[in-house]
Every structure is written in C-alpha cells, then in structure tokens.
C-alpha cells in the first residue's frame, strides 16, 4: 500500500503519471507484478499541508508500506530510482520529494482472508 500526499492543485494533475512512475520503480527494483498496484492519493489544501522550509508547493510525500524482508541495498535502490524517475518524468526536484519506507512483519498484513505469513501464493518475492 502506497500513500501519496501533496498540495491538491499540484498533485491532482499528475496522479496518473506519478502512479505509473512509482509502480514502474516497484516492478523494476522489487519485482512487483504489473497488477499489484495499491496507491492512495491524499491531495490536500495548501492550508492543511505544512512542510519544511526550502521546498516548493510541489513538495510530495510518498509512504510505502510493505512486508519486511527487503535488503537495505534493495530499499536504497528503490528510493534512488524513485527520486531519479520522478525528477526525469515529472520535473519534481528531489528536494521536493520525501520517501518513507514502512516495513511491518508479514503477520501484521491481512489480505484475502489470511495474514501475510500464511500466504504461499504470492507472485513476487519479499526477500530481495
């Protein structure tokens, strides 16, 4: 599950393209299947979205929730791919992008009536 926050007038026009870039990175770096996209956009009014100094109104926060198991090198590669591709494809500078990886143990995930540690039919690997 990925949650993306940004100022409404900047985020709304790029949602589909940003989703495509994020998922492209998830597929190329983590090996996620093409049909495994779970993105939630949270466009906010400017008065509800405070952010650090030195950022523009393009400031975007991307929270990636995933089952634990990816190596630190893999996580770094994902973050760097996101920065590079978001800048190249959407023109948002890395200073205006914040990426947070949140890992939870597989038993803390529930989907299709089971917990993540019970799932034996995933079409992708968690330990990469």
TrEMBL record:
Pfam assignment, any one: Tautomerase_2
Superkingdom: Bacteria
Keywords of this entry: Pyruvate
Identification of the protein by name: Phenylpyruvate tautomerase PptA (4-oxalocrotonate tautomerase family)
């Amino acid at each position: 599950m990925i949650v993306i926050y940004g100022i409404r007038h900047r985020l709304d026009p790029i949602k589909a393209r940003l989703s495509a870039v994020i998922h492209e990175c998830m597929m190329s770096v983590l090996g996620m299947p093409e049909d495994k996209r779970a993105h939630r956009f949270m466009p906010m009014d400017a008065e509800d979205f405070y952010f650090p100094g030195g950022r523009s109104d393009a400031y975007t926060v991307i929270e990636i929730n995933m089952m634990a198991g990816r190596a630190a090198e893999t996580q770094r590669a994902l973050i760097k791919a996101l920065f590079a591709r978001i800048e190249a494809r959407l023109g948002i500078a890395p200073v205006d992008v914040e990426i947070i990886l949140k890992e939870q143990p597989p038993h803390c995930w529930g989907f299709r009536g089971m917990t993540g540690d019970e799932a034996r039919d995933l079409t992708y690997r968690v330990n990469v």
